[in-house]
């Protein structure tokens, strides 16, 4: 909400609107669908795989993007669909996970560090992320969203902070699709 308000103050040429809703179980699905149908760009910052897949599967031509931190807070990830939506967030997610599996630089990418319990409830573990990491990765993600939304091709970028500084991995989002008996399988094409 604050981000949308700030963007509207800074950029008078755009109309940024936010949605605060459990999209997987909305209170008013009609209002949610109407708001989404008006969008030119949809940014998912939920850090939730089910929500990202829901966003990817929405009908319509609105371009979709997703941004999140790795569990340990050392990496920031941006996925932006191409303008034609021939490469979706689901395709980019597959390319991202493939890169995590095959790239030695991402060996500990999905590991959690500095976990702490913040309440007595179950699922109350959270990760402590240094403020400097949040600031650096947020700036890189913001810059990529601004530039990536202006180009027609898809984007998948992973930035990782380590003792040497910030490393960047850019992954081509091309996919190979196989269809058989009503199923379509999409895989990274490399």
Would you mind describing this structure in some detail?
The chain has 190 residues and is an alpha+beta fold. Helix content is 31%, strand content 26%. The protein has helices at residues 2-10, 29-37, 49-57, 89-102, 131-148; strands at 41-44, 63-69, 75-80, 115-117, 125-127, 155-162, 165-170, 175-180, 183-188. A 5-stranded mixed beta sheet has the order 1-2-3-6-7, sandwiched between helices.
What's the helix and strand layout?
Layout: H1 2-10, H2 29-37, E1 41-44, H3 49-57, E2 63-69, E3 75-80, H4 89-102, E4 115-117, E5 125-127, H5 131-148, E6 155-162, E7 165-170, E8 175-180, E9 183-188
Parallel strand pairs: 1-2
Antiparallel strand pairs: 2-3, 3-6, 4-5, 6-7, 8-9
Short description:
31% of the residues lie in helices and 26% in strands. With 190 residues, the chain is of the alpha+beta class. It has one domain.
